Amino acid sequence: MTQQHDNPYSHASELSGLTLGKSTGYKAEYDATLLQGVPRSLNRDAIALSGDLPFHGVDIWTGYELSWLNAKGKPMVAIAEFFLSHDSKNLIESKSFKLYLNSLNQTKFDSIEQLQHILTTDLSQCAQGDIRVSIIEPKQFGHQRVVELPGQCIDELDIEVTDYSFNPHHLDNSIDSKQVVAETLTSNLLKSNCLITSQPDWGSVMIRYQGPKIDREKLLRYLISFRQHNEFHEQCVERIFMDLKRFCQCTKLTVYARYTRRGGLDINPYRSDFEQPPQSQRLARQ
After folding, report:
1. What is the pLDDT of residues 177-219, one digit of tens each?
2. Which residues are catalytic?
3. What structural domains does the chain harbor?
4. Nearest to residue 250, comparing CAs of 214, 216, 215, 278?
5. Which residue of 52, 68, 87, 246 is surrounded by the most CB atoms within 10 Å?
């Protein structure tokens, strides 16, 4: 039986015009109007994020299916990396992003530099924020490496789970104030659902913190509770960040999630209050 889950954004006007969840045709020629932004405030207001943000960061997108025509009409392929600042007004809705990239397939560009400029211009206008675009040509593919997130994985904890409803109160009484530590913990069990379609989003998450030692079993239960939670990737990471700050009193904190790709795109939000984003490197599931 399919379970129905409450969607706190179901009546949000900001989502009403999205192509996500609707049948759409694919355009094979360049069309920047396909891009759609979603205000970051939609989620941030719900988790009391207003004014000066308590973190900095970036949304790292990898586009594995970038293709276009060169000036002579010859098809070209590449991998693109997009680094969107955390303080852009909008996040970029992923289906619209895929449709937009597909619209390049039969479009001629005189050079990679021209393509890069157009991507940067269009995406920054949609997001209303800073974005950096890097295009990786086939001759550079051999330098791409598969890595794993740094830190100690907590997934081997032998716990029984009977409730999969999102519940931040798994983090209640989850710290030992007598032990102040600096450690990095990871999990591959992060799963949430698309805000609109409820399709599963699979991810791995790294939590690097300084502060009172966090009970790993309670942290794992908290992460598992996202399993049927409906929110965009970026929103989930910011929610995790704020919950850890609230319940675990972290003095320094980084939350970094890498999600598996869908339609040739992966999304990897990074939020921290003390360190800079790492180099983008794909995980085994990506």
Report:
1. 999 999 999 999 999 999 889 999 999 999 999 999 999 999 9
2. 194, 201
3. 27-143 (3.30.1130.10), 146-283 (3.30.1130.10)
4. 214
5. 68
